[in-house]
Write a structure and sequence with these properties.
The protein is mainly α and 313 residues long. The chain has one domain. The chain has eleven helices and no strands.
Length: 313
Amino acid sequence: MTRQLFGFSANRRIVGGLLVNLFSSICIVFINKWIYVHYGFPNMTLTLIHFVVTWLGLYICQKMDIFCPKSLPVRRIMWLALSFCGFVAFTNLSLQNNSIGTYQLAKVMTTPVIILIQTTYYKKTFSTKIKLTLVPITLGVILNSYYDVRFNLLGMVFATLGVLVTSLYQVWVGAKQHELQVNSMQLLYYQAPLSSAVLLGIIPLFEPLAGDGGIFGPWSLTALVAVLFSGVVAFLVNLSIYWIIGNTSAVTYNMFGHFKFCITLIGGYLLFQDPLSLNQALGILCTLAGILSYTHFKLLEQEEGKSRLAQKP
């Protein structure tokens, strides 16, 4: 009976964690889009607020012994902090200037670019099956972008820059975790305030501080509440990702990620009346087929690797 109660309690925690991640991951896209569309809040300032709230959340977490911080030299994570600024700022600019469908599908291109970077500069090899899954992913993104009636050059520039910087950031995160022997939360705990300091120095060069559209402008109470809520949700996204992977498996997180991908796309068309043509729908299905194939083959390779290790004497 005790074992059954424990199992039921554990399952409830897992379901709770999945629901928090589902809510926060989808909500962050919609709330940011809402802030851009209805309030015109400055992009880089919103990014800075996300960084500050994330660091405050992590500070509370380490005080509650959820993780143990590790001292890191600033010079060894400066480029990582700069890429962190770039990836969040450019993805937010992409969201601001594109439909949610194009924004979501452009993010999918991060996987092919990471594979290209790791193959070219880190001499990492990938199986033919993995490489072939990139064909439907890329084709789907091209189809959606080409037939997007709200296509605009500036939005695609931001989306492209977002993919490139995000790919670099994710490659460097893995390299730095291995090099500095830290986990994701320990690294983010130092990245967030360093990235905040960088943004604090450059925001006055690109965005007004006072008046309409400035951080100290005449914002309504509802706008400020929405911005603060966005920061809290951004923190929940980061925290829930680490919790799910640590308490379930890569399979659960990946399959759950595909579900969120579909829900976010559908929500964009329903909430913001983003138009959807037949060719765009085909592009979305093509991309989703590529994502599922990539995940399937990647997990098979991981299982085969574990089997080979287990067979060794």
